[in-house]
Design goal:
Elements: H1 2-7, E1 10-18, H2 22-33, E2 39-42, H3 71-85, E3 89-90, E4 94-98, E5 103-108, E6 111-122, E7 126-128, H4 131-134, E8 144-146, H5 147-155, E9 164-168, H6 172-183, E10 187-193, H7 202-209, E11 216-218, E12 220-227, E13 231-238, E14 251-254, E15 257-260, E16 264-266, H8 269-273, E17 298-300, H9 311-331, E18 339-343, E19 347-351, E20 354-355, E21 361-367, E22 371-380, E23 383-393, E24 399-403, E25 413-419
Parallel strand pairs: 1-2, 1-6, 2-3, 6-17, 8-15, 9-10, 9-15, 10-11, 18-25
Antiparallel strand pairs: 4-5, 5-6, 7-16, 12-13, 13-14, 18-20, 19-21, 21-24, 22-23, 22-25
Helix pairs in contact: 2-3, 2-9, 5-6, 6-7
Length: 420
């Protein structure tokens, strides 16, 4: 291996973008428009576009383009721009390592390749939580899929994976797949959610469940899986306020398919290799207002940073990252961000976790349970510097609050809290 390493030519570039999904494409286009043209996109799939290639439903692009687009149409707008600008990219390129010194190693169809970049932009997206992470008792029959895998079977490979379906988790992809499977002739018996509130967007509850008469049961979970070679049924139980199954509430459902829509996890193995510190709440990197991690010159945006509910926000976040990354490539550094963001027990997380306090910026955050008629308040030493009044705040929807530089002068720490 030592001899092989010497044979790899390390090419110098201004920026390497790891991931050719919506975040990576948006960042690349903005970087090129800012004059940083010696860049490269690395994508491990055969095509650019990321997860959007299999999201054939509409609802994308309303915020970013003012149009209602399907996932592939949304991705194609950025792909067309990449082609128009002749931005270099490699598909079928799996990044194996990102070092602290910005050396990126990838396995490509032409063999192992390396690049030394001034800036590395992490846009790897996220993966789905699987049955193994849930620890559901039972055998291991065929017919247990994550929602994204079922979506790929139908939309990308034209394969029907199910006839009688139970869905665990009310995540957006799970609800969208409830509708998709129904339209393709399957019978979706119910969607079960362990939390006392839905985890997906209200519009998906209406359009994907209520419009098709698919029941949603809150505070329920699957407690056993039955079947040998193929799934034959599941046991569902109610849960108490501590998410523990309540004895005596078990109910059997016959089905040949169980679809899991139980959350997304940012894909951060490469980030850890590069020595990037992760936030225990978002499972993504800790970043400042420039989307720079605690490793100078390594940036992160999109679902690898924190899970978004709308792809429009992913692209817009990546474009803000690219503005900062372009400045970093030109100057070799960015302003320090000493102001730490703290939260109360009702805020799940904020992004960024640190700001400079000298420029206007935007806080993205989520509450950890539903609220009605509330205010999200940002304070400095007890003084209110920003707030957002909301009729309802739910964990499924990301909340954004702009912060004005003139109100942050001299500040060392900010506290974000919920009032209701």
């Amino acid at each position: 291996m030592g001899q092989l390493e010497h044979e790899i030519v390390c090419e110098a570039v201004d920026a390497v973008i790891v991931g050719g999904g919506p975040a990576g494409l948006a960042a690349a286009v903005r970087l090129y428009e800012k004059g940083i043209t010696n860049i490269l996109i690395l994508e491990r799939e055969k095509h650019l576009g990321g997860i959007l290639r299999q999201c054939i439903h509409d609802g994308f692009g309303l915020t970013r383009f003012g149009l209602t687009l399907s996932g592939p149409e949304y991705a194609q707008k950025f792909i067309d721009r990449v082609h128009e600008l002749k931005i270099p990219y490699l598909t079928d390129a799996t990044v194996l390592e990102v070092t602290k010194e910005h050396v990126v190693t990838a396995a490509t169809p032409q063999g192992l390749k390396q690049w030394k970049a001034k800036a590395v932009i992490l846009t790897m997206g996220c993966r789905e939580r699987t049955r193994g992470a849930l620890g559901i008792p039972g055998e291991r029959p065929a017919g247990v899929f994550t929602a994204g895998v079922a979506q790929a079977y139908i939309n990308l490979y034209n394969r029907m994976p199910a006839k009688e379906v139970v869905i665990l988790g009310s995540g957006d992809i799970g609800m969208i797949m409830a509708r998709r499977l129904t339209l393709e002739g399957a019978h979706v018996k119910a969607v079960f959610e362990i939390q006392p509130y839905p985890s997906g967007l209200p519009r998906n509850i209406e359009q994907c469940l209520n419009d098709y008469g698919i029941p949603l049961y809150l505070s329920h979970t699957v407690t056993a899986i039955h079947g040998d070679k193929r799934l034959t049924g599941v046991t569902v139980s109610q849960v108490d306020e501590h998410m523990k199954p309540i004895p005596g509430t078990e109910k059997e459902y016959d089905c040949d398919t169980l679809i899991l829509s139980v959350g997304l996890i940012p894909e951060n193995e490469l980030s850890l290799d590069a020595g990037v510190t992760l936030d225990g709440r978002t499972k993504g990197a800790e970043v400042d207002e420039y989307f720079q991690t605690d490793r100078p010159g390594i940036f992160a945006a999109g679902n690898v940073l924190h899970v978004h509910d709308l792809v429009d926000f992913v692209s817009m976040e990546a474009e803000r990252l690219a503005d900062a990354a372009a400045e970093y490539v030109d100057k070799g550094c960015l302003p320090e961000c000493p102001v730490v963001i703290r939260t109360d027990c009702f805020i799940n997380h904020t992004v960024p976790q640190r700001i400079s306090g000298k420029e206007d910026c935007r806080l993205s955050l989520r509450v950890n349970r539903p609220f009605k008629d509330c205010r999200i308040v940002v304070r400095q030493d007890g003084t209110e510097v920003a707030f957002k009044k909301m009729k309802k705040a739910i964990p499924a929807e990301m909340i954004q609050i702009p912060l004005k530089a003139e109100k942050l002068s001299g500040c060392k720490e900010l506290e974000v809290s919920v009032e209701w």
